[in-house]
Fold this sequence. Notes:
The structure holds two protein chains of two kinds.
Chain A: H1 2-31, H2 36-50, H3 54-68, H4 71-78, H5 83-109, H6 113-121, H7 126-156, H8 168-179, H9 182-210, H10 215-220
Helix pairs in contact in A: 1-2, 1-5, 1-8, 2-5, 3-4, 3-5, 5-7, 6-7, 7-9, 8-9
Chain B: E1 2-11, E2 14-24, E3 29-33, H1 40-47, E4 55-60, E5 63-64, H2 72-78, E6 79-82, H3 94-104, H4 110-123, H5 139-151, E7 157-161, H6 169-184, E8 188-192, H7 196-202, E9 205-210, E10 213-218, H8 220-224, H9 230-239, H10 247-251
Parallel strand pairs in B: 3-8, 3-9, 6-7, 7-8
Antiparallel strand pairs in B: 1-2, 1-4, 4-5, 9-10
Amino acid sequence: xxxxxxxxxxxxxxxxxxxxxxxxxxxxxxxxxxxxxxxxxxxxxxxxxxxxxxxxxxxxxxxxxxxxxxxxxxxxxxxxxxxxxxxxxxxxxxxxxxxxxxxxxxxxxxxxxxxxxxxxxxxxxxxxxxxxxxxxxxxxxxxxxxxxxxxxxxxxxxxxxxxxxxxxxxxxxxxxxxxxxxxxxxxxxxxxxxxxxxxxxxxxxxxxxxxxxxxxxxxxxxx
Amino acid sequence: xxxxxxxxxxxxxxxxxxxxxxxxxxxxxxxxxxxxxxxxxxxxxxxxxxxxxxxxxxxxxxxxxxxxxxxxxxxxxxxxxxxxxxxxxxxxxxxxxxxxxxxxxxxxxxxxxxxxxxxxxxxxxxxxxxxxxxxxxxxxxxxxxxxxxxxxxxxxxxxxxxxxxxxxxxxxxxxxxxxxxxxxxxxxxxxxxxxxxxxxxxxxxxxxxxxxxxxxxxxxxxxxxxxxxxxxxxxxxxxxxxxxxxxxxxxx
Lengths: 223, 252
């Protein structure tokens, strides 16, 4: 049960990290778009998903969302074996993406205006400006808070226990109630959470170094 | 090559370009000077439509800028621009700063773009810094990389927006030398600068602007030494640090 818990937690983590980065990037671009309707839509998204607890969204996608669909689809979802995991992924993703988009938006605001002008004046199109000039700088500038947010999202995977997704915290609770060996189970879970968060933080620090984010450190090193 | 016809621009209520008429021929070097806030940079930035004008017309290499069908990417690919604050991409090395646009806009292969970058870096005297990041370069070096980046698109026109204003005095000449050699090769250049020495050496015409208007256009000696307008005289005397003869002070 513990092993399954670890596996499910890892799946939740991997899926929500990737999806919330993608969705967050899209929302961030919408919020800095020159089209007013896009900005409004992006802002609406952030205000809705950031201001309502992540647990609510996990519950919403598990219990409420299937009811909103045509009844046969809802029936299929409710009887889909892995639906707790899918609903958990969606709930955590929409929640985390709202934070990611706001962090990335702050990164865009930190880029001097001249960067875009330089890109425009060499003939780069809008998409190329984002791909090669703006987005790389947005991610670099915000990697430290983005990393912290991702660790937070990792811990949020435990919310999925509320919809019986058999992740690590759920497994720990199950072991406790079935065998009363709560202390042992909790200790294993603690080691796992601390260990994996540590791995994540180390990966982020390595990434910071390899992307040469610390401007001071590159200027010190000789070419 | 570049023609302004009654160009006007407003920033809200401020009339920043007033009835600009100016013609720049192929191979000409034009220096624009004037007090700050005169509209020099704005004028320069209308040429590649970084700033659109509100009224009138600008024709660049046969392309009408007010025509919505004009392909702005094609226009901008023909026009190099060098900025006061260099605006190099901080996350890319000198070489990659230069190769980005030729690869993505002109469709050059990585190898061809790199060869072109090395040639240009050699030309601006920075081939030994090809793998350096912008933060590792001095201001003068950054500006020379920025010039190389613009030249890599093989533009027909080069625009310079106060290219030496953010540089320490001893770094100015290395940038001006590159600009002088470009001018001598016949590049069409429009330069906003207060470097009188540069203007005297290579400018075909000097444009003096004040308060959004072109007050006068003439050869460098005409504008710097014998300007017609009192406003130009005042400006030049302050640039040259020559006190203006004032009769009332004489009497005291």
